[in-house]
Structures are given as structure tokens and as C-alpha cells.
Amino acid sequence: MTCHSICAETNARQQAMLQSALKGPVRRALDSSDTLEILANPDGSVWIERAGLGLMQADERLEAPERDRIIRLVASAAGEPCDRNTPIVSAEMPGTGERFEGILPPVSEAPCFSIRKPAATPFGLDDYVRSGALAPATALALRQALQARQNIVIAGGTSSGKTTFANALLAEPALAGDRIVILEDTRELRCRAPDVTQLRTYRSAVTLRDLVRSTLRLRPDRIVVGEVRGGEALDLLKAWNTGHPGGLTTLHANSASGVFSRLENLVAEATATLPFSLIGEAIDIIVFLSRRSGERRVEEALRVTGFDENGYRTQPLTAPNLAAIS
User: Fold this and answer.
1) Which of 280, 264, 269, 178 is nearest to 224 (CA)?
2) 92 Cβ neighbours under 8 A, 6+ residues apart
3) Helices marked H in 22-99
4) DSSP of 78-109, one letter per residue?
5) How many other CB atoms sit within 10 Å of the CB of residue 196?
6) Which CATH class name applies to 3-116?
7) How confident is the model at residue 322 (pLDDT cuts 50, 70, 90)?
8) Do 199 and 182 meet the contact criterion of CB atoms below 8 Å apart?
9) Greatest CA separation for the chain
10) Contact (CB, 8 A) for 299 and 283
11) Are the C-beta atoms of residues 125 and 172 closer than 8 Å to each other?
12) What is the pLDDT of residues 95-130, one digit of tens each?
């Protein structure tokens, strides 16, 4: 038996064991097309978020041994360590690719995990407009920004829909003629352009900062980062500002204007001197999403016009002649 066939047999066995472990409310939620996220808490309760319905508790529980088995099977299939010294597992579900986060004691009181499912039918900008989550004028302005190769930051809190909105932008025809390089921790972004290269981090050996630097040698037209959360923010801003415009990234922030302080904190991990002007010049558009009562919507969209002694200059995206200083 060849090494390839042995690996294939091992993978098949691991997937079969995992499918057997994924039962009850978790199995049903995974099989349902409207499921967005599955949360199994340390107390055994299971919570399911469904499109348009928000987060609801399942009738059945998942006991600690079952949660522990699921976490360890996902870790084994992903080739990730999983023990008392490495009690956090960040991986993709084998075979299907959902984002998985598992946590074991002593970090948590008992095993717990979350599974984030990608949308079964990708949302486009027109879908956002039809649902009332995006103003038609803002959708038009975003399409024009993509066509003009402007750099866009999508901000919001946890589960505000940043990745889904990023996928909506990546599906736009304006990107079809460009070479797109996408960098992520977990594969969640999808782009319909024909020339796409997707890279992801690998444990602590290959970080997002490593990928941003390496990407510059792959001749990208546009650089897309799934989420900036560290010193790679500085490298990305430099790349955007020096010959690689038209990029896209997501960022955790509490407001559109809060993107600037959040970026400053991330850039500070890589340099002692904060490049305020670079931030003001590299970012063209900020889109802020919020989630209220289970519904996600574009709350605010800003155009960034630079930085001066008064701070970052912004104006509403759909009113370019009404300048406001933030």
C-alpha cells in the first residue's frame, strides 16, 4: 500500500469517526441550509444561529465527553495538537471546511466549541439592497470604489457579518480582470475572479505577516486579508499604498471611526512610531456593519480623505461633497 493510499484511508476513517460524533442538534444544524453558527457551551447547552432568526437554544444537550471527542477528532484530522498544554484548537472541519474553534480545560471549565458555517447561497450587493441591509446609493458607491481600485476596510463586532459582506464585494465583476491574492487564517473568503491565489497561515510557523510579505512576490493586483488582527496591519497598509491598490480586509471595531484607533493599536505591535499619514492615505473606504436582533446591516460607510493636524479626515461615502473632520 502506498503512502498516499494510507493517508487517504486514515483521513476517511477520521472523517467517519467525526461524522459519528456529530449527532443530535449539532448534526441537524450542520445539515440545515439556514444555519450560520453552532455553539456548544461548557454547561452542555447548544445554541444555533439561523439566518433571520438569531440565536436560539436547542432542546437537546451535548455532554462533556461528547464535546471533548468532537474537539479531539477535529484536531486529529487537521493535524493540530490537542492536550493540556495546547487546549485551543483553531481548524477547519475536515471535508466540509467550516471554521471550528474548540477549547478544553484548563482554559475553559469544560469542553466547548463553535462551528461557523459559510452562507449556503452567497449574498451579493443586490441581495443586501433587497433585504434593506444596504442603501442603494451605498451599493453604487461601493461598486464605483471597486472599479476605481480603492482600498476597503470592512469593520464590525463579532458575528456582525464582515466575512459575508467581504464575499459580496469579492463577487463583483470589477475584480474579474485582476490577479487576486487572498490571505486568511481559515478559508472563508470566496472570489469569482478567474485568477485567484488563496494562502493561509500555518500554526505559529507561518503568520499573516509572513504571508503579506511573501505575497508581494506573487505579483498581486489586489491583496485581500481575511482579518487583520496584529502587526501585519502595517505591512498591508504599506503594500496598499505602494503599488497594490484595490485591496480589501476586515477588522474588529465598535464603530466606523473606531477603525482608526484599532489600526493604530495593531500597527503599534510592529513599530514604535505610528504612521498616521500612512493610515489616512492607504484606506479609502470604511464600511461598518452591525447586528441587531439577529439582523446584520451596513450601519455606516465613510470615505477617508487623509490625515492632518485635526486628525483623520472622513466624509459620508454617499455624500462626497460634504466634508467632515473626525
Assistant:
1) 178
2) 78, 98, 99, 100, 186, 187
3) 24-31, 64-78
4) HT---BTTB-EEEEE-TTT--EEEEE-TTTSS
5) 18
6) alpha beta
7) very low
8) yes
9) 70
10) no
11) yes
12) 788 889 999 999 999 999 999 987 666 789 999 999
Instruction: Note the pTM of the prediction, 2 decimals.
Output: 0.82
Percent of the chain with pLDDT over 70: 92
Q: Quote the percentage of the chain above a pLDDT of 90.
A: 69
Equal fold, 3-116 vs 125-325? no
State which amino acid sits at residue 210: D
Amino acid sitting at position 159: S
DSSP state of 216: G
pLDDT at 81: 86
Neighbours of 215 (CB within 10 A): 22
- Which helix (H) or strand (E) segment holds residue 286: the answer is strand 285-292
* The predicted structure's pLDDT at residue 312: 97
3.10.20.740, 3.40.50.300, 1.10.390.10, 3.30.930.10: CATH of 125-325: 3.40.50.300
Number of residues that make up the chain:
326
Contact 306, 167 (CB under 8 A): no
Domain ranges in the chain are 3-116, 125-325
Report the C-alpha gap between 216 and 239 in whole angstroms: 8
User: Which ranges of the chain does DSSP label H, i.e. alpha helix?
Assistant: 3-21, 24-31, 64-78, 125-131, 136-147, 162-170, 208-215, 232-241, 258-267, 276-282
What would the pLDDT profile of 236-270 be if each residue is shown by its tens digit? 999 999 889 999 999 999 999 999 999 999 999 99
